[in-house]
Amino acid sequence: MSETTRSDQKSQAGKEQTGKKLAGSAQQRGLRIERVFTTEGVHPYDEVSWEPRDVVQTNWKTGETVFEQKGAEFPDFWSVNASTIVTTKYFRGAVGTDAREHSLKQLINRVVRTYRKSGEESGYFATTADADIFEHELTWMLLHQFFSFNSPVWFNVGTNAPQQVSACFILSVDDSMDSILNWYKEEGFIFKGGSGAGLNLSRIRSSKELLSSGGTASGPVSFMRGADASAGTIKSGGATRRAAKMVVLDVDHPDIEEFVETKAREEDKIRALRDAGFDMDLGGKDIASVQYQNANNSVRVTDEFMRAVEDGAEFGLRARHTGEVIETVDARELFAKIAQAAWECADPGLQYDDTINDWHTNPETGRITASNPCSEYMSLDNSSCNLASLNLLKFLRDDDTFDAGLFSKAVELIITAMDISISFADFPTEAITKTTKDYRQLGIGYANLGALLMATGHGYDSEGGRAVAAAITSLMTGVAYRRSAELAAVVGPYAGYARNADAHQRVMRKHQAANDELRTLSSFDGDIHKLAGKEWAQVIKLGQQNGFRNAQASLLAPTGTIGFMMDCDTTGIEPDFSLVKFKKLVGGGSMQIVNQTIPRALKMLGYTGETSEAIVEYIAENGHVIDAPGLKPEHYEVFDCAMGQRSIKPMGHVRMMAATQPFLSGAISKTVNLPEAATVEDIAEVYREGWKLGLKALAVYRDNCKVGQPLSDGKAKSKDTLVEPEQKTEAVKVEYRPTRKRLPKSRPSRTTSFSVGGAEGYMTSGSYPDDGLGEVFLKLGKQGSTLAGVMDAFSIAVSIGLQYGVPLQTFVEKFTNLKFEPAGLTDDPDVRMAQSIMDYIFRRLALDYLTFEQRSELGIYTATERARQVETGSYLPPEPEDDEASEAESLKAESLSAGAKAEPVAAQTKVTEAEPVAPSVAPKAAHTTAELMESISGLSVDAPLCFTCGTKMRPSGSCYVCEGCGSTSGCS
């Protein structure tokens, strides 16, 4: 019996009391804690089997052992990866001494008992028995990986160090030298504690304004240099993680253009130094000479500015002290510069000021001006937030339904614990201490959304997938605020509530209205949505009676290191990274396995054991589902990932963020990844859509736009390809070179006339007898002109490439979306707009010669297919109506032709458990899932190497995380 089913049975009696049990006068005596996960009289530790493990961590680049601890005790169901990360990151005490923690029991006890003690001292529990249940329930959930607190809790709680529990901080800086120098100091203390900070520099006078002495001000960008150097120094000496910081500047600041272009110009410097032979890799010895690399930059834009961009109007830049307009700029030109800089180096991101403050529960205290480094925590200046994240896949029952009641009970308990932590926590400054204790901001969130959607047969970029995510997020925040109102009846509302009561209740009604507008598509998300509606009704009712204990309740963090601690397949709100995983084994070694959610997803979609097994084997070998034997094309979207042959399109990420944003107190840590071929306009479109869809913040990353990442990849590969000593003695060296396959004298061809932006031309394409494209000739311009000569030379180059085996798909990937004149309308009904002649030509060739599956990966469809998608939601034509026998024979024939055994369609309604496919040995060159995917797909993962163990990291939210040791590039 699964953990979820077992807990579900024990919680049935209490589900009807969700949101009601603690209402009324009985609350004044303290909370009554219900036993949901645990068994009375049995300690959670006694229910599981424990085993000792030797944890050894090696730097793959140097071969050096960087950590070793033998006999660490963990449950037998914890992965090697999870136990390694916990041992190296969270166990306290000097290694090799008796003071060193050696068991997960010690770690959980250290944290949970501190929470319990503080809760009892602060009057949270009605009786000692309730405190006992609280301790056991929290222990059980942590032990079974149902949730995790953020990393600073594991670093600090219960130790002799300051009890810093918050991962996210927002600072403030004024227009004075004392304030600026104090900013440097406060950031340093926050970085030292393993956390990150953000702030808005817009109060500092611009370089176009005068000082009181009559001189000209330096401007905020100049002061960023000192803060950047400070962060780089502390990053180098820190014991827990790299420094992480966010710098924000308002779009109406007179120095906004200098701020926007700051990091892009530094990236130019990096390229120049790299070409001159300097080591400019991320972490390289010469990178320290480059400035502004230790912070994420964001521009705070207003609705006024975005409307000016839409209208092509002028926009005023204002003096900091007087507010008068001292310069006007073309809004579109400024917006284009923002998009251009983001295209060049991924900075700046955008924060949408009016949306952020429209959902602000404490406007009477002050505006929200900044965020933490990953942009998910947005609240008052000089404040902090502690985080915790739930593992969504743990709440999926054996019958593939989501246990919304159990999820609600978990949220109740976690929010209670998070609020208790503020009572005993230490903070780096007096200002942060006061604001945090007065407003008690919390950030509950989740991980494993991508795995949950796949396991339940929902595509990440689909209406169904977005409905599920929205319903779960709404339920989570609703329960969190309902519990916050219940806590207010026991220990009082937050100190700043009285002056902000009307605003706070208005935001609660906005959340409730968003929940009412949510449209579900099935009973799966419908049941979650119904419970969420009940919770929001309770929030409004109890909030009016009691007020709220917390100014903020929820957000979606990256969950980098803690995601691995919980053995999650996916982090935060992210889709699955890939369909194959790199798994470490007990005793050393590693295996390449297919995601464990895939067989469950196939079962949910109705595939039988043999067909499912064939699909899983195909995925294990190819890393994707395209042409998998027996798998219907309409099911491909369920298995779309962040990387690979069917990677999720940028707007798919934006739409998922938009679906969940109305149900979050804070924002979402996520970077929208774009392919290397993406244009500046593509990035501008993402930023515009983010504003229109109501996001609070948005960041982008275009593959290979930064020097550090590709260089990291190159170093990893150069090491992996070193020849072993025994291989150096081989005398025979075999070289494989492509051979040219010439076209026959007589071959089929087609001639297409075209017009792009008024420029007319002809294209003749010749193919082999087996229909493979072999040559292209382009006629454009007058014979003998320079343009005609260039097109002839280009045609010859492409034709020779095709005959030497370069796939047409590669040409299409490289030449579509190229932007130059002539561009605009065409006379082709399938390609109505083209960004250039090349863009049109290769889109037309793709439509003529590539399969539907190949074109769909590139987002190229015929007019008929696009019309069908609008009408039916699918680009594919409907399957012909036929009797069961002929349909079964058709499927059987297709499967057998692909080399797999298939069952008749009628038999697919009998759901059986697929036999697990034996994992294969992972390539020796691969040390993480990112490197494994590179070896399978031949595509590079644009990510840096880990500073600790030298393996390639992978994206997690708006930063990177290492699967080998859990190190992050600055995630909370």
Largest sheet: 10 strands, mixed
Which band does the percent of strand residues land in?
5-15%
Distance between the termini: 35 Å
Fraction of residues in helix: 40-55%
Overall geometric form: globular
Radius of gyration, whole Å: 29 Å
Strand tally is 24
Task: Label the structural class.
Answer: alpha/beta
Sequence stretches where pLDDT stays below 50 over 5 or more residues: 1-27, 236-240, 709-731, 882-916
The total count of helices amounts to: 30
Mean pLDDT: 85
Family: Belongs to the ribonucleoside diphosphate reductase class-2 family.
Protein name: Vitamin B12-dependent ribonucleotide reductase
EC number: 1.17.4.1
InterPro entries: RdRp_reductase_class-2, RNR_2_N, RNR_lg_C, RNR_NrdJ/NrdZ, TSCPD_dom
